[in-house]
Amino acid sequence: MTVAETRPAAETDPAAETRSDSLAASRALLKDLQARFDVFRNFAPLAIGIDKQFLAQHPDADRKALRHALRSHTLSTRYLKEMQTAKQRRNLDGSEAGEVTDEARTHAAEQLRERFKKQAEVRRAAEAATKAAEAEAKAEARRQEKLGQLAEKFGRKGR
């Protein structure tokens, strides 16, 4: 077996390496955006076209990483919660950039509702699995106890 055959797929698959690099670049860019701009740090609703504002200031920025960073940021729970209650969108400098529409607020609320519903389902499934495992463990302990009692009762004594 060659060394390449023993490596995990992510190490030998160029597409997986590219995805991993892209993900790392978008995470790094998001951290940079949060460090530079209050609107990102405070999860304020962003202006429509904020990507163009950023690219005008930083024309050498990786567009794909920016798109992924913005998507990650705007899908975060904190951002969606802010979108539900905020009245104004903000530019990079924090200035007002238009109102948050009722449609945007409703969309944010729906996204959060779905997210919390899925989390509750996962939590309930985990609790059910835990209870089932505990019940199985108790049943097994009872079986072992009964087997021990039967072995003691019917086992050969002193023969």
Under CATH, the topology of one domain can be stated as: Fertility Inhibition Protein O, Chain: A, Domain 1
Which CATH class of one domain is shown?
A: Mainly Alpha
* Low-confidence runs of at least 5 consecutive residues: 1-7
Terminus-to-terminus distance = 59 Å
β-strand percent reads under 5%
Largest sheet: 2 strands, antiparallel
Order of helices and strands: HHHHHHHEEH
Q: Could you say what the CATH architecture of one domain is?
A: Orthogonal Bundle
CATH superfamily of one domain: ProQ/FinO domain
Helicity range: over 70%
- Number of distinct beta strands: 2
Compute the average pLDDT.
86
Q: What is the 3D shape?
A: elongated
Instruction: Kindly report the spatial arrangement of strands forming the biggest sheet.
Output: 1-2
Structural class, judged by helices and strands?
A: mainly alpha
Descriptive report:
- It is a single chain.
- The chain has 159 residues and is mainly alpha-helical.
- It has a domain at 3-100: ProQ/FinO domain (Fertility Inhibition Protein O, Chain: A, Domain 1).
- The protein contains 8 helices and 2 strands; from the N terminus they run αααααααββα.
- The protein has helices at residues 3-6, 9-12, 14-36, 38-41, 50-57, 63-74, 77-85, 102-154; strands at 88-90, 96-99.
- It has a two-stranded antiparallel ribbon.
- A hairpin with a 5-residue loop joins β1 and β2.
- The protein is elongated.
- The N and C termini lie far apart (59 Å).
- The model is unreliable at 1-7 (pLDDT under 50).
